[in-house]
Amino acid sequence: MKILSLFSNKSIKVKILGSMLILAVCMIFACMVVSITYSYKSILDSFIQSSLQDLASAQNNADNLLSIVENYSVILATDDTIQNTLTCQERPEGTSLSVNEILLRNQINNIIGTFPRINAVLICDVWGNIYDSGVTVISSEAAYRELSAARGWSSTAPAPYTISVIGGRMQPNVISYTCTVCNWRSGALLGYLTIFVDEIFIQDLYAPAEDDHYNMFLLSYDDTVISTKDSSRLYTEGPVGIAELKEGLHFTSTSDDYYIYKNYPALQCYFVKEISKKIIQNTINYMELFMVTIGAALTAVTVFMSILIARRLTRDIFKLYSATEQIKSGNWDVRIECSSQDEIGLLAQNFNSMIKEIRYTTDRLVDEQQSKREYQLELLNQQINPHFLYNTLDNICSLAELGYLDELTGLVNNLSSFYRGVLSKGSHIISLRRELEIAASYLKIMQTRYYNTFTFQIHIPDSLMENSILRLTLQPILENAICHGFENHLPGGFITISSALIGGTVYLYIEDNGVGMEPEQVENLLENTAKSQTEGGFAIKNVHNRLTLYYGPDYGLKVESRKGEGTKVTVTLPYTSGCDHLRQT
Q1: Is the pLDDT reported for residue 140 higher than 90?
Q2: Which of 491, 410, 408 is closest to 451 using CA atoms?
Q3: What are the strands of the beta sheet with 136-137, ordered from one edge?
Q4: CB neighbours (10 Å) of residue 396?
């Protein structure tokens, strides 16, 4: 808004120049943002894909190592010497136990001596004795419990033994694979075999080169680093939690680093590659500098071109501006004098023609719409069945010939009252009270015509009597009920007129206990189809059209009927608090 206010008092030339500059700068800035964002995303996606390949390669190496170790476990578990030594009927003790230890140690070393990645092998028999490949077991009882309880691969942990190194002994960090040793003939359990691989060998599977600017580590499912080049981070909480690593995404980040990861169920961990955001940001910075330089050059070119265009456009545009201001104030007789033959000149000529055509068309449409609306309403309002009058006059003649003076007087009075309401030169809109008087007169006439074969009741509260309604809304509905609902004109017919006020809408209900209609008849009654253009269908459709034409599409008629059970017609009208504004007939 502040920018618009700065231009409000400036010349058209300044506005065009300023607008073009703002638009150009915004487009240049948007292109820079999109380019930088896309480049950043491309660099990041490339890094992620490259990292996933590194992780996949590391996992393939781990699979090879684990497969080799598992093969060695099968060789050891089925070796005849180990099988025969562990197969004994009673606990070996003393000299027998010592001989077994030496025998198994030699045999283990003979088998695994060609594969240096195996750090140690421990075998325990069913008696709780532990045989090793040349290491010192720290606690035989604890080692036995761990070996007999474990199955398959276990994540990195301190070994249950120590080994000799220069200057003393050490307890290495290892991953382990445990399997049962069973008699290959009988299947009887002989003991448990565990192979240990030093964590250093795991590091060799994924360790980056010295010139690589990233780090890789293994994160267990319990958020603990179980393998890393940085020994200070081993067995500490990982820089990212397991909850942040969602399967299938393979990527997450913190404020300082990016992490790409792959799940590795064999060791119950994730292979995680860690890289500092600064490495990627340096590349982005060089790209941003290049884009800013290009943007500045484009802005300078835009300024020069905008000045030239603004000068060219403002020569005749002031005339167009002045003309539009006059039209805005209501002067449709304005014309533009312009001698230019360019696009502005053609625009001025077309502008003059357009204003002339718009004024003519607008005046014509207003007149046509007003005439059309008045004609439609008057035409629909005057479509009254003339047979009703003829039949009633016949009835008057019959009553006069028969000498039924009371009935004759009542019929003539009702007919007079009815046509005073129908044919008087009043408004098309009358009060509901007056409409009900017309309806009652009509019903009494029809009772006389059909020898009182039906009765009627009107239940309308006084609070709705002054509500406005289109004249002759109810009569065609009542005529349809009498002529078609009571088609046999047998005694017992009944018509009820009632109402309800819901929200701002008045509902009038006209119900009869006549013959009713089939669902197909009800469906077609208010439609513009040939099936609805019967005498009764046309009258109902006529009322519906009048209501929707005057009040709008939310108002009109709704018909409900079941064959043999009668018909209910609902008239929907807007609620008005009074009819003082109406001309009563």
Answers
A1: no
A2: 491
A3: 136-137, 161-165, 168-170
A4: 16
Backbone φ and ψ of 356, nearest 5°: -65, -45
Token code pair at residue 311: 């000068």
**Structure confidence at residue 27 (pLDDT):** 82
The amino acid at 199: E
> Who's near 517: CB < 8 A, 6+ residues apart?
525, 559, 561, 562, 563, 567
Name the nearest CA neighbour of 434 among 384, 470, 476. 470
**Within 10 Å of residue 384's Cβ, how many Cβ atoms?**
17
- Reported as half-sphere exposure (CB side, CA atoms, 13 A), residue 418 has a value of 20
Coil, strand or helix: which one is 154? strand
pLDDT in tens, 88-111: 777 888 787 888 888 888 989 988
Chain segment 442-464, per-residue pLDDT in tens: 888 888 888 888 999 999 999 99
d(Cα 260, Cα 52) in Å, to the nearest integer? Answer: 7
Neighbour-count burial for 403-425, b at 16+ CB within 10 Å, e otherwise: eeeeebebbeebbebbeebbeee
| Beta-carbon count within 10 A of 197 CB | 23
